[in-house]
Give the backbone structure.
Amino acid sequence: MTDYHAIPARVIVKPRNEPIFSEMATIVEVNDEAAGPFVTVHQPGGHIQARGIDIDGPEWPLIRQAINDMLAVSRGLESDALSERKP
């Protein structure tokens, strides 16, 4: 008899009021194309082809840090834009 196990290989991050196929959903999943597992992050994108990136384990800390840095820059830009609107 074959021994089986379940692998939780996909997570969908989405707004609570959106369906899982929403254009606002981000899909994080484990893939393997025979060279070892890697993580792919993509969004469905509506009528255009889904776009994504493949992430290898060793590069993740740098990618994560770059994403965090860019989010901080983005928040700073939003804050600057809001302060310019005030009289």
Remarks:
- Strands lie at 10-13, 26-32, 37-43, 51-55.
- The mean pLDDT is 80.
- The chain has two domains: 1-55, 57-87.
